[in-house]
Amino acid sequence: MTFPFVKGHGTRNDFVVLPDLDGSVHGDLAPALVVALCDRRGGIGADGVLRVLRGDEGGWLMDYRNADGSTSEMCGNGIRVFARYLEEAGLVDPSEPLEVETRDGVKYVSFCADGEISVEMGTPKLGRSTTVVVGGRSFDAIAVDIGNPHAVAIVGSLTEIGDLLVPPEFPAGEFPSGANVELVELAGDHTVMMRVFERGVGETASCGTGACAAAAAVVGQRGERPPVEYQVEVPGGRLAVTMDVAGVVHLKGPAVLVAEGTWTASPQSLGSPPPSRQFALRAERASGRPD
User: Fold this and answer.
1) Gap between the Cα atoms of 48 and 65, Å rounded
2) Is 183 helix (H, G, I), strand (E, B) or coil?
3) Local structure of residue 290 (DSSP, 8 states)
4) Burial 189-215 (b: 16+ CB within 10 A, else e)
5) What are the Cα distances from residue 49, in Å, to 70, 72, 129?
6) With a threshold of 0.85, does the pTM exceed it?
């Protein structure tokens, strides 16, 4: 099985883009294929896969898969990379707004004059208070739904968290489908710092929906009234999250394509799963190599 790919990232949250404009190349995109593609030793390496499809109405559909092969409703960094691919492939006019179908409905994308990309992400829903256990420590958190589930914990200092190598734990019955966990440190009036453990992936250098969830949680905690804008600093860079007067969140940040090529899926690459991402991260850090 041989097919073309493009590699890109948004604030170092990286993706393999698979152009499949007629939906005939990858079929149902088997989880084993996604895992092999995202394997950082035996594949291309990525936090997820973005399949480019035509939508039901002739527009564009983003089929997003986590690194473990599972599906996700939405990916804020991924949709910017998806849009960048369409732009650089000459498939869309960057002077016009772009509509992209996702599992969380249609998202509206704009190409900004400064070279970044902005996405209308929808209205976050703040839910119940909960707790998360990270590295053996329990933190108060709030559930936030922005198309996919999040648990946001505001902490005193991110430097005290340690490695996020083990999936966070939730109280029994909470988040039956899992959730992204954001650990947030307040760094100024409208700046926060964030680390994230993404379900189906592990710790990543950035998370677009997580940045939106983090900003929404802080706005709610502070009782602020929109419009308001937050800068969210992540290990991979900086994202801007704006909540407009109607409470709709807009995510703005970079999207960069770094490579393209042809990948061949051999029976060997699909037959045996790679070591866990947590094990791979631990090995990389022990050797001094970057993630």
Assistant:
1) 6
2) strand
3) -
4) ebebbbbbbbbbbbbbbbbbbbbbbbb
5) 10, 11, 32
6) yes
pLDDT at residue number 162: 84
Half-sphere exposure of 162 (CA within 13 A, CB side): 9
Question: Is the pLDDT reported for residue 231 higher than 50?
Answer: yes
Q: Which of 38, 112, 207, 212 is catalytic?
A: 207
DSSP SS3 for 158: helix
Which residues share a beta bridge with 134? 137
How many Å apart are CA 118 and CA 109, to the nearest integer?
Answer: 6
Strand 180-188 to strand 137-145: parallel, antiparallel, or no bridges (unpaired)?
A: unpaired
Buried b / exposed e over 67-94, threshold 16 CB at 10 Å, is bbbbebbbbbbbbbbbbbbbbeeeebeb
Give the Cα separation of 39 and 276 in Å (integer).
Answer: 10
Q: What is the identity of the amino acid at 30?
A: A
Contact 233, 240 (CB under 8 A): no
| Residues forming beta bridges with residue 77, ordered by sequence position | none
CA 152, CA 173: separation in Å to the nearest integer? 17
Report the alpha-carbon distance of residue 102 to residue 87 in Å, rounded: 18
Question: Is 75 assigned a catalytic role?
Answer: yes
Share the mean pLDDT of the chain: 90
Write phi, then psi, for 182 (nearest 5 degrees).
-110, 130
Least Cα distance to 216 among 203, 200, 232 occurs for: 232
Type and span of the H or E element at 220? helix 208-222
Residue found by looking up tokens 């409703």 in the block: 73
- Gyration radius of the chain's alpha carbons: 18
